[in-house]
Each structure stands twice: as structure tokens, then as C-alpha cells.
Amino acid sequence: MAKGVVKQRKSRRCLWCIVAIVILGGIAGGIYYVVKKKILDKNSSSTSSLEDKYSDALKIAMQFFDVQKSGKLVDDKIPWRGNSGLKDGSQAKLDLSMGMYDAGDNVKFGFPMAFTATVLSWAILEYGEHMEHINQREPAENSLAWITDFLLNAHPSQNVLYIQVGDPKEDHKCWEKPEKMTTKRPLKLVNSSKPGSDVAAETAAALASASLVFKKTDSTYSSTLLKHAKQLFTFADKYKGSYTKSHPEVATYYNSTGYGDELLWAASWLYHATGDTTYLRYVTEENADKYAKVDGPTWFSWDNKLAGAQVLLSRLSFFGDKGAKGNSGIDDYKKSADELMCALLPDSPSATASRTKSGLIWITKWDSLQHPVGSAFLAVLYSDYMRASDNEILSCGDDSFEPSDLRKFAQSQADYVLGDNPMDISYLVGYGDKYPEFVHHRGASIPVDATTGCTEGFKWLSSKKPNPNVAMGALVGGPFKNESFIDSRNNSMQTEPTTYNSAVLVGLLSSLVNTSSPVKSLK
Question: Phi/psi of residue 148, each to 5°?
Fold first, then answer.
């Protein structure tokens, strides 16, 4: 009851009025408190339930890195995996035994592997506390180091980088477990006469971002990573050329559509790692005109990093980085990132039409989930940058959106992956009651005790029985545009998982585990 509403009166009747009002007010207040508490408890329970879902999914997704490891396995957590590729690199007197296989075969491709490391580093840097909350930071860092150790060994001198172990053409003639490989393991490299600016720059980005991850826990290792990152960037920039032009036979598997995006991406990470404004000038002056000017939004993937660079550089604008202050080039990247976010939001006037009826971003039938998961990861990063920097409005034409709208979009893509889709199937193997059982994956499809040569193993490819081994945490290719999905081992377009998509999914799920603000500086 507000002060001064009721005056003192001598009348007993009015005294009883006061008592009645007090009692009724107390009752009403109690009812309000109870109702409000129930609403808050319900909202808290709903939020907790969502976070538990994403936490459970993250724990599962993280396991796929163990499934994909090459080399002498330490504390092997996958019962059907064992040591493999132990002599990789020996013909060049290098130890290239570590690293990870790219997908369901037994080849190690440096280009997508480096991207895996860059994205995993980004996820740890932004959401490491979320991971730590559910005991997943250490596994993430261990998986990252498993790749970066390989990348360091693959860079024996300043202008030489080994980019592939194994021959995919010969490998695909066989269906055998990595532990029992019978094919030769040739190497491919890029150097000053056979340049590969794309793969060298992506490797530089991987090592620069990883140097930030390990800066506090292992400064010596961090310094080594950064040293190699700087050398690789210089190599990539000095000897320009695409690695698939130097090695045309690789284009069938991981064709690079250009190297400009990797150069910008690598320079962006090197600026974050060093604070050296030389790298900032690289991305905002002449090279911005060369490589950053595109019509409309681009899709973040192992081949195209421009959207990732736009969001990463926008970070500098959001949090008022001193080195970027007054740099109009950074503002241009943020404008491009704004346009991308507006394209992703389904209710935006500039929303992309590249979606399924259920709202999943859909760009290509091969490995269709890479683009929605990548888009969602960038969206939730942008949402968190906005929220943490008190930038609450995103303008899309005449409409305005909030950070929560971007987060809602990101959740919708994650939920689709986890089973909220017309097929009622989780595309994350091991999560939920229904997930793909015929994953296109050699190791998962062949029984542990089976003895197979190169071609004898094809009976397991064509087997009508589900995989005897579960590729825990595998994110399969995904649905067609009509949202159908055929769970067949021979349907590699839809059922083959990739390590790099898992890295992006780990980033997305880590962001959704909690709503705490990101760090304001990655340094």
C-alpha cells in the first residue's frame, strides 16, 4: 500500500477498512510472489533443460575427434580404434603420424585439417569457460594439440609445407580400417615453385589461433606455434598461388576456389595473436580491395573463410580495440558482417531464400549441414559480441533485431541437427533415440576382429547390417533440400561425416551451453 493513501481516522469502521486492506494486500502480494516465482522457476527450468541438451550433445560431438585420430593413440577412448599411420612422413624423414583423417577414409588432407584446428581454437577462446563447466575444455585442447603437432612437423622449413598424407585415388579403391592400411602413403607439399597460398595461410591461421589457446598454459609451445604461423603467412603472401593449381589432382576432393579469403583470415588471426598493426593494415588497405569486395554474403566453410574473417574483425569494432580505432576498413568488415546476419535472420527483409521449408539454411546437397552449422556459429558469436558490448540493435533495412534474435536462429539450426526436423532423426551420431546407423566410415563399418585386405573390405561397405562400431559424435552430411535423408553407407553424400564440420558444431554447441558473455580480448 502506497504511503499517504490512507489517513488516520477515529472511526472504528475505517480502522477495520485499513485492516482489511492490509490483509487483502498481503494476500495479493503473496499470490503475486508465488505466481512470479513459479514463472521464474519455469523459465529457469526451461533454460536449464536447453543448456543440458546442448551440454549432452557437446560431450558426444567432442568424441569424434578421438575417432579420427591418426598415430600412436594415448589413453585411447574409442575401443574399436588403434594405432595407425605410424610411419607417415618417414620417406621425408618427418614424423607425420599424428593429425586426423578428414572423413570416412584414411587420407590426411592438410587444408581442411588446418581449418578444423582454427575453428576449434576459436571455439575454445570464446567459449572455453562453457567447455570447462562440463569438463570438455581439456579434451578440446588435447584434440587441438593433436592437429597442431602434425602441422608443426609438416612445416620443416620456412617455405615448405607438407599438405597431404596418402593418395585419395588409391585409398578409395580400398575399404579397410586405418589400423590395417595396405596402400602406400605418399606425401604432397607446397613450396616456392609449387605455391599454395590457401593451405599455407589456413595453416598460419590455425597455428596463430592455437598460440592464443596455449599462451597461458604452455608459453613455450605457444611461442613455437606463433613463430611457424608468421613464417607460413609470409610464405603464403610472397609466393601466391592456389594449391589445387599446383596439385590439380587434389581438386576432386578439396578444391580451393581462391586464396584471398585465407590470407585475410590468417592476417586477422595474427593480429589477434600479436597486436602487430601490420597485419591489420594488411586486411584493411590494398588487400581489402583485392580479396574482401564481394557481392552479398558468403557462406563460411573449409573453402571460404571470408565470412569468418568479417565476424572476427568485427570483434575489434564491438570491443573498441585500440589498434583498430579510427580504422574505417574495420567498419567495412562490420558492415559486411551485419549484412550476413540480416541474411541469416528468417524475418529480415533481406533474409536468404536458401532454406528448407523447416528453416534450415541449405546451400548444397553434398555435406549439406556444413553451411547451416557454420552460419549458426557465426550468428551466435555475433549475438554475444553485440550483447557484451551493449550494442543491442541490428538494423536490417527498416527493421531492427536484437542479439536474442540471432541466438534464436542459431538454436533453430542446432535443434534441427539434434532431431527437431521432419525426419525426426538426430544427425549427430550417438545423440538421441534415433540417429544414422549406416555411417559412411571405414573404421566404424568393419568389425574389430575382421581381417580384410584392400578390396575384401568392400563387403562391409555393402552390408545391410548397421555399423558394428558407433562413430560417436560424427556429424553426417545431412538432408536434401526436400529434407529427406537416406541412411545408407553407399550414400556418402548424406552419411559421410567430416572432422572439420565437427569442429564448427563443437563451437556452436559450446556457445549454447551457457549465456555468459565472451571475453573482450582474445590476447
Answer: -65, -30
pLDDT at 8 > cutoff 80: no
Q: How far is CA 238 from CA 197, 283, 437, in A?
A: 9, 15, 47
Task: State the angle between helix axes of 277-284 and 260-274 in degrees (0 to 180), rounded to the nearest 10.
Answer: 150
Considering Cα of 64, then 67, then 69, then 72, what sign does the dihedral take? positive
3-state secondary structure of 165: strand
User: Which residue type occupies 398?
Assistant: D
CA distance 344 to 370: 15
Q: From the CB of residue 42, how many other CB atoms can be counted at a distance below 10 Å?
A: 10
DSSP states of 401-459: E-HHHHHHHHHHHHHHHTT-STT---SBTTSSS---SS-S-HHHHS-TT----TTTTHH
Q: Give the model's confidence band at 16: pLDDT under 50 very low, under 70 low, under 90 confident, else very high.
A: very low
The CA distance from 51 to 513, in Å, is: 5
Q: For the chain, how long is the longest CA-to-CA vector?
A: 106
Report the distance separating Cα 196 and Cα 203, nearest Å. Answer: 11
Closest CA to 494 of 69, 120, 104: 104
Cβ atoms 96, 187 nearer than 8 A: yes
Residue 5's pLDDT band (boundaries 50, 70, 90)?
very low
Single pTM value for the model: 0.90
Closest to 164 measured CA to CA, from 76, 56, 252, 43: 252
Q: For 209-231, write each residue's pLDDT tens digit.
A: 999 999 999 999 999 999 999 99
Angle at 87 between CA 85 and CA 90, to 5 degrees: 135
Query: Taking the CA atoms of the chain, what radius of gyration do you get in angstroms?
Result: 26
Q: Mind listing the pLDDT tens digit for each residue in 373-415? A: 999 999 999 999 999 999 989 999 999 999 999 999 999 999 9
In sequence order, what are the beta bridge partners of 396?
399
How many contiguous H segments (helices) and E segments (strands) does the chain have?
A: 20, 5
- In three-state secondary structure terms, 227 is helix
Supply the angle between the helices 260-274 and 197-213 in degrees, to the nearest 10.
20
Q: What is the arithmetic mean of pLDDT over 146-161?
A: 98
Task: Indicate which residues carry an active-site annotation.
Answer: 440
| Short-list 42, 33, 103, CA closest to 477 | 103
Asked if 295 contacts 287 with a C-beta cutoff of 8 angstroms, the reply is no
C-alpha distances (whole Å) from 257 to each of 88, 165, 298, 378, 499 are 28, 22, 13, 21, 20
**CB contact at 8 A, 495 and 477:** yes
| Sign, CA torsion 291/293/295/301 | positive
* pLDDT tens-place string over residues 75-105: 888 999 999 999 999 999 999 999 999 999 9
C-alpha closest to that of 195 among 254, 239, 257: 239
Q: What would the grid cell of residue 242 be?
A: 592456389
CA 113 to chain centre: 12
The C-alpha atoms of residue 392 and residue 252 are separated, in whole angstroms, by: 44
